[in-house]
Each structure stands twice: as C-alpha cells, then as structure tokens.
Specification:
Strand order of the largest sheet: 18-19-17-16-20
Structural class: alpha+beta
Distance between the termini: 5 Å
Radius of gyration: 39 Å
Oligomer: single chain
Number of strands: 25
Helix content: 40-55%
Length: 821
Amino acid sequence: MGTTTPPRTLAEALRTRGDDSLAGLLRARPDLLSPVPSDITQLATRAGTRASVVRALEHLDRFALQTAEALAVAPDPAPYDTLLALLTGDGQDDGEGRDDAGAAITAALPGALATLREQALVWGEDTALRLVRTARELLAPSPQHPSPTGLGPTVSEATAGMSPGRLQEILAAAGLPATHDPVSAVAALTGLFTDRSLMAELLDTAPVEALAVLDRLVWGPPYGEVTPNPTPPVQWLRDRGLLLPVSTRTVVLPREAALHLRAGRAHRVPEPVAPALAVTAERDPQAVDRAAASQGFMALSTVEELLKLWDGGGPAILRAGGLSVRDLKRAAGALDVPEPVAAFWIELAYAAGLLASDGETDERYAPTPASDEWLDLPAQDRWTHLVGAWLAATRTAGLVGGQDSKGRALSALGPDLDRSAAPEVRRRILTLFATLPPGSAADPQTLLARLRWERPLRTGGPGGPPAPGDASDLRSRIALWTVNEAELLGVTGRGALSSQARALLDEGPDEAAARLAPLIPEPLDHVLLQADLTAVAPGPLERPLADMLSVLADIESKGGATVYRFTPGSVRRALDAGRAATDLHAFLATHSRTPVPQPLSYLIDDVARRHGHLRIGAASAYVRCDDEAVLNEILADKRSAALRLRRLAPTVLAAQADPGALLEGLREMGYAPAAESAEGDVLITRAGARRTPPRTPPVPVPEGPPVPDATLLAAAVRAVRAGDTAARAVHKDATTTSATGALPRTTPAETLATVQAAAMTGSAVWIGYVNADGAASQRVIAPVKVEGGFVTAYDHTADEVRTYPLHRITGVAELADDAAE
C-alpha cells in the first residue's frame, strides 16, 4: 500500500483509493452495487462491462465526454500534455478567440479528468492516462460506428493488410525514401502526416479540388465512396496515402492527416464551460409569489372540480387501459381547458393517489378515500402534496395523444406513459430556475442548451448535440413540458420561480407551506345573492358552503370571483339530495350578505311544490300520482310515446322503460318526479357516494438503480475491502495447500492450537471450511474466542462475526506478515 509504483490495471488503481473515493465511485455508479462486489477485482471487472460503461458515459457532461472522446483517439496510454493538445489544438491555426478557448479548456480539464477518474472510466498517472477498454471501444472510430470526434483510424490501422508494393508506391508518390520493411513504411507515412512542415509542403502541391475533398472529410465522417475510376483529385489523394482504402468502394482519411488539417484538435468546438442561462425578464419577486400563489390556488380548484366531476363514478376504463378520447374531451369541456391540459390534471390526480380504478367488473375511475383526506387539508398542504407528486412522478402527461413505438395511440391514464427520466429533468429544470436571482424569468431555449450540455449522450447521442431549438428528443420535450406544467401548478409565476417553490426544493414541504399560507386568501363563509338568480362568491369558499352551493346551483363562470346560477334543474338536484325547501331557504339566508331575492324564493317554492308529486318505481317502472289530471296530461303528451305508458289505475301508470329512463323522460317534459323505493319511500340520491377501495399512488419507474445512502455505501466499502483482503491473503505454510489451490489440511490438534494462538495474539489466519451442505470455501478470520468445540471470529470474507465448529475446519494456515498490505 505504501509503494509509489504506478498501477498496472484498473483493479490496482482502485485498490490504492481511500474509502471515501470508493464510496464516491459507488455513489456515482450505483449499478456496481447490485449485488455488492466480493472484492476489488470483481468491482473493477464490473466497472468495465459494456452496460455499466454506457450508463456511466450517459451521465457525463459535455466536456467530460469530450475529454473521454479525445482519450479514445489518443495513444494508449496518453500523457496529460497530449490530451490537452488534442482539446486545445497545436496553436497553428489563427481562429478568432482560440486563446480564450484554450485558457478555458486548460482550466476545466483537471476537473473533467477528475470526474472520469472518480467514475473509474480513466485510470493511471498523468504521465500515462488510460481510458478503460470498453469506453475506448465505444468511442473509438470504426466504419460501422464513426467516432463522435469525426476522426478515422490511424495510418497503422488503415494500412493493416496492405501489400508492401502498394506501400512503396505511396511513399514514392509522397516523396519519401523507399523502404522494404512494411513497419518502417507505415512509420514513415505516419511521420509525414505528423510533421507540420513536410505536410504543408505536400498540401501546397495538391490540386484545389483535392483540398476541397479533404475539407468535406476533415471534420467527419472521414469515410467516402469512390468509383472504380476515381476523379483525378481523388486519385491524387489516394496515391499519396491521404485517402487509404477500407474496401473496394470506400476510402478513409487517416487520423494523423485529419489532425494536421484540424490544427491538432479532436473536436471542432470544445465546450469546457456550461452554457449560461439567459434571463428574458426581471420581475418583482413579491409579484411573482402572488401570481404563483394565485395560479396554485386555481390548480387546487381544478383538481377539486375534477374529483367532483367523477364523484359518483367516472368514465369506464378501456380494455387496453386508460381513458377514451371521448371521455378526455368530456373532461376537458367540464374543466374548460384544452385536452392536453385536461390530461395533465387527470394524470396529476392519479399520480397523487386521488384517482384510481374502482376494481369493479365494469371498471371505472373514481376518487379514492385519500381524496377526502386531501380535501380536508389546508390549501397550502394540498398544494405541496400535488407538487411533490408531480416532481416524483415518472408518468408523463405530455405523451398523451402521441404514439408508442408500435404506432398505438397513448391515452391518458393508460400504460406506457412512464418515462424514468422525467423526475430528474423536472427537478433539474427547477434547480436551474433557482440559480437565477429571485424574480428572473429564464429563456426556455437556454434551459434546453444547458440540459444538452449536462447530458449530451441522452439527447444528441455520440454523433453530437441536436440543432439549437430542436425539441425532438425526449429530455428536451420533458423540459418544455416542465416549464408549462410548473406555471400551471403555480411553481413558477410569470415565468420566474416562486419563493415557495424554492423553499420546497431546499427546505421541504413544511417550509414551502408556511411561505404559501399568507399568500392564499382565507375561505369565505358567504356569497352575494342577486336578483337575476345568480350568486357571486367574491373569493374561495369554505368547503361545506362550496359543496352545498355546487349542488344547489350551476357554476356559470370562474376567475377571481365565481358566479353560480340557480335553475329549476339545480334546485331539483338539491331536493333529490334530501334537502327540503325550508332547508334551502335557511341555507341561503344564513350565507348571503345580501337579502334573498324574491324570484329565488319563488323558484325554490315552485320546484319544491312539484317535486315528488309524481312517484317512479319498478314495475318495469311505474308512475303514481294522487292527481288524476296530471296523469291524463302525461298520457296525452306526444313526448311520452317513447316511454310506452299505460294506465293501471286512476292514479297509477306503468311503463316499459326502466326507472332511470322514466325519471329523465318526465323531467325533460317539464315535470319534477321523485324516485321511490319498493316500500314507497322517496329515494334520496346524494352526491359523492362512490369511492374506490383504498389505493396507493402509482410507483415511479426508477431510472437505473437508486442512489445508495451513506450507511449502505460504508457497509459496501467495508465488504469489498474485507473480500479483497481474503482474496489476496498469502499463507506462510505453502505445503498446507495443493498445487491446484485446494483447502489447507491440518490435524485437529494443529488446528486447535493455531486458532487458540491467533485468538491470544489477535492475528488473522487462513482456514478451509466445509459447511453443513458440503460446500467448501476458503476464509480469512480473526479468532476472538475458542471454547466448546467452536471458534468465534471476525470473518474478513463476510465482513461479520461468525461462529464455526472446529470439526468443519479442514485446516488452518497463518497469514504472511505483509498480507494486509
């Protein structure tokens, strides 16, 4: 451990790390913990697997990825100065601003290299940097997978298998001395392309058309197709090795020649610094908070209205799952919002556990019991609950209306809406908002540019980033949806992050609720009745008042003040719910700050007088009424023909329609019938009677393994260290094992004496052990107590204290003095 010898493998490099560094690796790449590696060698092997390396590359920012890409085309190993030169260039071009860019790259490169080292993608000293083999294979150029840098293979790789005669022809055409050794010929051609003065002399003799061909290939892709009879410019390039054959129809610009034409740069535009966020407007932070609070209260009202809409049982579930297009349109109309916005509110209520399937045979959506608990919470706590569910949800409402990979339509509440990247993107967008001064509104396009810089492989892929403003990739679309949804929820106000949202991100829901509470108006216990049969609620109403008023009247308009309209149908709805006329009069008188208008009193009395005058029951259905004249009117009305009524008695009519259809039919004719039970009692229909069984909110689909906590990381590092100690243990007595590595063999007396001595001295020993199932293993233990035929010891292999029967120990050997080093 004390040696300064450079590591020869990734495992050796990891072994020299401290515990904090190993914990950082496991934190950055949690997939390495599943399951916990048995030792350092296994950890290094797992860190080099293709799936793990791809996942690690996907989480690199733009400059760290460009650094890895430069190492992939650099010699292996590469000195630090060589890597820096590939990123900054050799200084031979006169590009404007190159000095500033070079300074920024020089300043940012140590941090990028530290990130690659921490994630075990790069190892070795600065004099010999090595990119792990799998990452080099993923990022290095090939005809099937061009390098992200646009560079082709080296001269040595491109000329492999080329005949010596052809190599001699190339050397002669390039003006180089002939050599009969193919290795020397390749080295001479490589030297030509890497010598700036010789290369400049060669290109000075090139035709202008040949230089144009090089310009098209220099930044990639470096491959081109040629005809059996190439044009003179292409033939000139082929003769001098500036284009080398890949196949009979394909040629490639070798890497060394391309680097000369690029002035030594691996990338056309290195990006060492993250793009800055542009501020589109600066607003008063208090105005932002008030606007966000107002919009947040509207969000709560919208979700409450949705729950009320489906209170008695919502729409049926499609056979394939989800909501039909017609039901989505109906919900959008009821909420008075566009269909995509309605899909967002529906998905949010579902993610928050407020809506779910009722699980019946005729399966429908309905509010859950948790929705009643949510409605009882203060407004600020309801808001934090909704926003918390939105931040954590992987269901992505913006996909509704699109198609899946098989061309099937994606429906609201349907399957295939989970996108594991959504929570990270939402939180990252809000975090970027939080980096701006309070009241500052960010430009969405600069937010997208920042996201692409932070996760380039998840957006642009290995070939480079998308064009600016392109929102075709999923993360960009989620980011744009996040900006819109944050405004709908009141997380942002007028484009800027509110202080309550900042508190939610930094301090938790309790602090956010405390910040929001003073900005939400107190619920009112009164309305203003008007002579035109309307009531005006000048602000939010207390829940009992709002619930009763929503039954007694229809909402006509919403906004800062809500306008309710009283109609015969709405009054009848209240009577159907079991309210008497006297109850309605008392309710209005109690809760109105203005006198109850006479037309409204007359409306209630008139509907109540006729309500229940007709009785509907099951015959199929029947109508009974003490007033024969009313029944005569119904029979004489042509609109009753569809009900197929006939008189059974002077005060009874029978119908072939079911009771529900008969009720609706007579109401459409202007009557106010009431349903009755088999005993003749009036049936009362109360709103909100349907609830699903207790349901848990949908579980977010994680993006890869979860990030382990500090306790798990510490335990994992101890286990890996212990396993590595056991695996690398060296025994003093080599004769105790066979040449094939079998278990040590000692007599029972020798075994007992050795473990007793180890217990007294506190030293570790190496044992062979056979468990009750007959499975043999080798272990390194530190005996603590030996008695009753058992040895209690700390097992370095399992990283725990265990007790072993002495008769199951096949043999024991002391460790060499340097085993722990």
